[in-house]
Design goal:
Elements: H1 3-24, H2 28-34, E1 38-43, H3 48-63, E2 72-77, H4 82-94, E3 99-103, H5 105-115, E4 121-124, E5 145-149, H6 154-164, E6 170-176, H7 180-195, E7 199-205, H8 211-219, E8 224-227, H9 231-235, H10 237-246, E9 251-253, H11 256-260, E10 265-269, H12 271-286, E11 297-298, E12 302-307, H13 308-313, H14 320-329, E13 331-333
Parallel strand pairs: 1-2, 1-3, 3-4, 4-5, 5-11, 6-7, 6-8, 8-9, 12-13
Antiparallel strand pairs: 10-12
Helix pairs in contact: 3-12, 4-5, 8-10
Length: about 325
């Protein structure tokens, strides 16, 4: 084989090799469009309000194009067990989840600690994100955490107390000592109620197992009970109602699902909407939005929710204006 022929063969082989590499390598855009992100959702415990947030998150992600085969969602429920929170958060880290979402403050805290400033964490239904140390400020979170706060409309809740039980003098407030959001809401309501002239008595539970005994004491000492947005109290709501019903003491809770479980009335922020907005934010972050400069969204607008069956059981005539508002713009349980 002469040198000229050998050179020609070498050039052809080199050309074919380069062509193969160029045509077989996926371009960046193609790789980006086929990537399926993994999202870990960690819920503190099963109760109707948190379940609604979960459903809202999935719908919010779907609105951003993340559903079906375009996303892998790993949903975990810790059932109020702190060790489960830690184990499940680590599971997300081990599977390299692109983003995690915490439903309720303890779940969000566990995810943030595990992420350690790296992968993004979205909050869903967190009452006091800055006070709990999850973000620097709600307007400028400053790190890998942002999300949606469901701050309770406390003044509106107090207005409901005054309308439902106008002659009440002593208000009992119950919250869970390990629930930062519950304590935050309870103590802020305490200030408002004292300013309005009520004698306020505070009661606490450590776990839902405490509810029966604490509720029995409380029901004998107060005219009306306020149950704040608190995961422990919400989980034990039916136990609380069983006790207060025996003493004919009305309970004014913070959210609609607690009214359904036996509360008389409230102005409720939609837990589904909180979850939906968190899902939308998660979708935006997956698309590249920076959590550090993505302000926490706070939802405070609520709707009147009443339980006519419970009011009748306790011999309470709800104001006609309240009933009309619930029937036209809110929610009525019968």
């Amino acid at each position: 084989m002469n040198k000229r022929l050998l050179s020609a063969i070498t050039i052809i082989v080199a050309f074919l090799a380069v062509a193969f590499i160029v045509t077989s390598k996926p371009n960046t855009q193609e790789k980006k469009s086929t990537y399926v992100p993994t999202v870990g959702i960690l819920q503190l415990v099963t109760h109707p309000a948190l379940d609604q947030i979960h459903h809202g998150i999935v719908a919010g992600l779907k609105s951003q194009g993340y559903s079906g085969k375009k996303i892998k969602i790993d949903y975990q429920n810790a059932q109020a067990d702190q060790s489960n929170l830690k184990t499940m958060s680590q599971k997300f880290a081990n599977e390299n989840a692109d983003l995690t979402i915490g439903i309720a403050t303890p779940a969000a805290l566990s995810l943030a600690k595990t992420a350690d400033g790296n992968n993004p964490v979205i909050l869903a239904g967190i009452t006091d994100p800055a006070g709990s140390g999850l973000v620097k400020t709600t307007q400028r979170p400053g790190n890998n955490v942002t999300g949606v706060s469901g701050d309770s409309p406390l003044q509106q809740h107090l207005d409901v107390v005054q309308q439902v039980v106008p002659k009440a003098k002593t208000l009992g407030i119950i919250y869970t000592t390990s629930d930062h959001g519950g304590e935050y809401n309870a103590k802020n309501m305490e200030k408002l109620a004292k300013k309005a002239g009520y004698t306020v008595k505070m009661y606490t539970i450590s776990t839902t197992n405490d509810m029966q005994q604490v509720a029995e004491t409380m029901a004998s000492q107060v005219d009306v009970v306020y149950a704040p947005q608190d995961n422990g109290v919400a989980s034990a709501m039916k136990t609380l109602i069983n006790v207060t019903n025996q003493e004919k003491i009305p309970v004014i809770p913070a959210v609609d699902t607690m009214v359904k479980d036996g509360g008389v009335a409230t102005v409720s922020v939609s837990q589904y909407d909180i979850g939906y907005q968190a899902g939308v934010m998660a979708g935006q972050v997956l698309k590249g939005k920076n959590t550090a400069t993505y302000p926490v969204k706070t939802i405070t607008k609520g709707e009147m929710t009443i339980n006519l069956k419970q009011a009748k059981l306790l011999g309470i005539n709800l104001p006609a204006s309240m009933v009309k508002e619930a029937e036209t713009k809110g929610e009525v349980f019968k």
